[in-house]
Amino acid sequence: xxxxxxxxxxxxxxxxxxxxxxxxxxxxxxxxxxxxxxxxxxxxxxxxxxxxxxxxxxxxxxxxxxxxxxxxxxxxxxxxxxxxxxxxxxxxxxxxxxxxxxxxxxxxxxxx
Length: 112
What we know:
By secondary structure, this protein is mainly alpha-helical. It contains 5 helices and 4 strands; from the N terminus they run αααααββββ. Helix content is 42%, strand content 7%. The strands form 2 sheets. The chain has a two-stranded antiparallel sheet with strand order 1-4. Strands 2-3 form a two-stranded antiparallel sheet. The radius of gyration is 20 Å and the shape is flat. The model has no long low-confidence stretch (mean pLDDT 84).
């Protein structure tokens, strides 16, 4: 994380997983800016998006290439590759299961 922050690869506007920048702090800061804007006669337009599904579409090989291009250490990249490689999934509906398939994109998660 220090490399990403020190190399300006993560915006200083990023919140949620950066130490000292919680999503609660982000909310407080944006509300403060909005209140100032409204008190000065301004207008606020907002668009809300949910990008969680976007990560389900990121191919693992592309992620590894991107991390390499950012100068992430080979040890970290190897750890991420090991975490993502050789994963399989199947779908269960009632008592029936699909065939196992390779997971080539997205974030591994367990659903019960």
